[in-house]
Write a sequence for this structure.
């Protein structure tokens, strides 16, 4: 399959209902004929990979993926591993990065063109792309008679590792890692394998397969860079160099005939610690975070207890400390390890993210640490269970309206409450009671409910959802989609202010321009540096919009602010066409669920112009916003 066919298969996997060819053609930006041709290719791919699943075609209805039993997870995993490799730019850009950083030069446009099997025009376009991606990261591509990456050596290595780790391991193993092994003899590869085994023994536990692979990749990159004369000389150690890593440095020097100094081994030691981010329950019980991480975890727990009135469970303190320590180490290495759940937390669970962020972003030690946004989000993931337990997110009171037998009434109540801990059926009432209450404006009956659920449409002016007597998954999805929009018995509304801005093409000019407008309009009383920090830590890129949802100090009024950008800057390798902000006053914190859901609906209906896919849509979500600003 190619990249487009992979996107079509992903879309089919995500849709439960039949959708027309025209619908998929619009989604993918191609013709209906192309969709039909791609469906044949997808069916062939599924058969080749041993799947019993297939694409069903129904006249008048469209297409639907018919999944065989137990194949959904396997298919999703296969897509995760292959989507990056299917991207037409994946191998070329990664090969360029490896050649520029780990292959002896000098490099020219002509030599790079031959090395990555492309043409001169495409190579020049790629070099411009790299220059945009590296803006703000302390790195650059120097062009001219010679082409090379320039910047601090430890920053270059952190960036290279971050790029490789931003893809599924299998994609890199099959297509990119061989480039790092070409120059290594069998003896060298056996030596690398022994080093990994000894590092594992020194750490005191068995590394996961991904962790072993990640550490092995860095070890090969380190040796290749030193052999090329690129040595780390001035990076401060984040901790004392252990005797094991000092001894390993001497062995590396003897085996490869290179000079390996203390700074090099300090970074290798930090990278080894970074590669231990995959933990079992047993490991979490055995591991003791360092003093700084334990103190920060205690500060986070104290802030949460002060805000929500209940202590954080003792079982969560150690995982918080481990995540803080690993985040601090990655920050020191310049290594970004993507969080696969980042968008799910920041977008899908925006209300919980906002509520926890309103507390965490006021913890001085956490602000000072300047963790990567992916590591900050990991802390939020750990605390989501606690947030649900203390009941700080809004719960919805449901009235189940019946005109049926006892069995259906009790079954409907059970099913509705089972779908979400945020929904409680406070009463089961007869349809005539609702009609009578709605006929009297002063009736207190409806004050008991946030919304009603009924098995037949209700002719009343009150938020209600109609479901079938089956109370099946589609009925439950209908309830889940609708209820967050209601606020105190009425549909939630949030003021929306839309402004068109002309900004310079450099990312550094974007936030000051937006900040000046927010301050001038009286929307916020935040300083610029605080605003920058919030965007770097909480913001994310969705399609071509830079999105931030913030509830906390410095917000003067609750509103959505949409900034359409003329000449927007490049963020994460793509042009930013819009800045979308949801700013919630602390007094409205109890209504975060309906406000965030309304914000997401606004984003989907009034999003940035020109969100169509483009060749620059590569390394989605990478690099992080910190580098851009």
């Amino acid at each position: 399959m190619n990249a487009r066919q992979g996107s079509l298969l992903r879309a089919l996997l995500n849709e439960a209902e039949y959708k027309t060819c025209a619908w998929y053609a619009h989604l993918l930006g191609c013709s209906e004929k192309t969709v039909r041709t791609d469906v044949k290719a997808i069916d062939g791919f599924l058969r080749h990979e041993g799947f019993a699943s297939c694409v069903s075609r129904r006249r008048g209805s469209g297409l639907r993926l018919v999944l065989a039993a137990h194949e959904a997870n396997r298919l999703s995993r296969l897509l995760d591993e292959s989507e990056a490799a299917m991207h037409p730019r994946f191998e070329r850009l990664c090969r360029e990065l490896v050649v520029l950083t780990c292959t002896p030069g000098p490099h020219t446009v002509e030599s790079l063109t031959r090395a990555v099997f492309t043409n001169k025009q495409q190579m020049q376009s790629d070099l411009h792309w790299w220059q945009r991606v590296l803006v703000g990261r302390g790195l650059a591509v120097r062009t001219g008679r010679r082409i090379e990456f320039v910047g601090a050596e430890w920053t270059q290595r952190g960036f290279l590792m971050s790029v490789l780790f931003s893809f599924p391991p299998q994609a890199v193993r099959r297509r990119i890692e061989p480039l790092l092994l070409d120059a290594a003899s069998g003896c060298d590869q056996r030596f690398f394998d022994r080093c990994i085994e000894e590092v594992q023994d020194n750490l005191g536990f068995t590394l996961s397969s991904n962790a072993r692979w990640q550490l092995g990749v860095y070890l090969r990159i380190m040796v290749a860079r030193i052999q090329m004369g690129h040595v780390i000389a001035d990076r401060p150690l984040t901790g004392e160099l252990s005797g094991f890593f000092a001894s390993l440095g001497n062995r590396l020097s003897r085996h490869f005939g290179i000079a390996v100094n203390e700074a090099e081994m300090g970074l290798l030691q930090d990278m080894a610690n970074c590669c231990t981010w995959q933990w079992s329950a047993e490991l979490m019980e055995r591991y003791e975070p360092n003093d700084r991480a334990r103190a920060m975890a205690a500060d986070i727990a104290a802030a949460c207890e002060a805000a929500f009135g209940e202590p954080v469970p003792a079982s969560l303190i150690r995982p918080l400390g481990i995540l803080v320590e690993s985040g601090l180490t990655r920050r020191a290495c310049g290594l970004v390890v993507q969080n696969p759940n980042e968008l799910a937390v920041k977008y899908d669970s925006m209300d919980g993210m906002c509520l926890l962020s309103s507390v965490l972003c006021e913890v001085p030690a956490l602000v000072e640490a300047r963790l990567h946004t992916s590591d900050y989000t990991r802390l939020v993931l750990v605390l989501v269970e606690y947030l649900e337990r203390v009941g700080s997110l809004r719960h919805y009171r449901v009235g189940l309206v019946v005109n049926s037998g006892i069995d259906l009434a009790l079954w409907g109540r059970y099913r509705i409450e089972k779908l979400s801990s945020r929904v409680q059926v406070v009463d089961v009432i007869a349809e005539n009671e609702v009609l009578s209450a709605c006929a009297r404006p002063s009736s207190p009956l409806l004050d008991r409910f946030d919304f009603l659920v009924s098995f037949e449409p209700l002719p009343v002016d009150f938020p209600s959802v109609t479901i079938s007597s089956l109370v099946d998954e589609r009925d439950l999805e209908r309830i889940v989609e609708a209820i967050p929009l209601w606020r105190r018995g009425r549909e939630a509304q949030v003021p929306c202010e839309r402004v068109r801005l002309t900004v310079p093409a450099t990312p550094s000019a974007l936030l000051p321009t937006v900040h000046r407008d927010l301050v001038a309009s009286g929307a916020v009383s935040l300083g610029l540096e605080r605003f920058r920090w919030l965007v770097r830590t909480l913001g994310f890129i969705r399609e071509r919009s830079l999105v931030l949802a913030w509830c906390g100090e410095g917000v003067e009024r609750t509103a959505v602010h949409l900034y359409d950008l003329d000449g927007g800057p490049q963020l994460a390798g793509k042009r930013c066409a819009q800045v979308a902000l949801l700013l919630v006053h602390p007094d409205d914190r109890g209504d975060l669920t309906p406000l965030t859901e309304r914000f997401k609906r606004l984003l989907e209906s009034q999003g940035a112009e020109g969100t169509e896919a483009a060749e620059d849509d590569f390394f989605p979500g990478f690099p992080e916003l910190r580098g851009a600003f």
